[in-house]
Amino acid sequence: MKKYFFFLALGLTMSCKKDKTIDPVCVDTVSFSATVEPIILNSCATSGCHNASSAAEGIVLETYNQIYQRRNAVLGSIKHQSGYTPMPLGADQLSSEQIQAVSCWISQGAPNN
Hints:
The protein is mostly helical. The chain has helices spanning 2-16, 32-43, 64-69, 71-78, 96-107.
């Protein structure tokens, strides 16, 4: 009986162990409305780029749903990753703080907060 209890306790302990490691840079929850949305609206959804009237490449990034649906492509573009068009086009790369904020927001599940 003791042997079964040991394995049960061991199994419960192992099932509670988290597989995820917490990124120390993403400790605080990133707010979409206070942080991510202003970054995207000021850097991407501008005239001639990804606003409703311009819709460069057919992409509009003005609402949560539009940004959420393209979140990984947005991150790849602002990080200037291989396979993505570096954005903002013809401008300096966003600051590392802005890129990190978008990255953390996505890693936190891209909440509409």
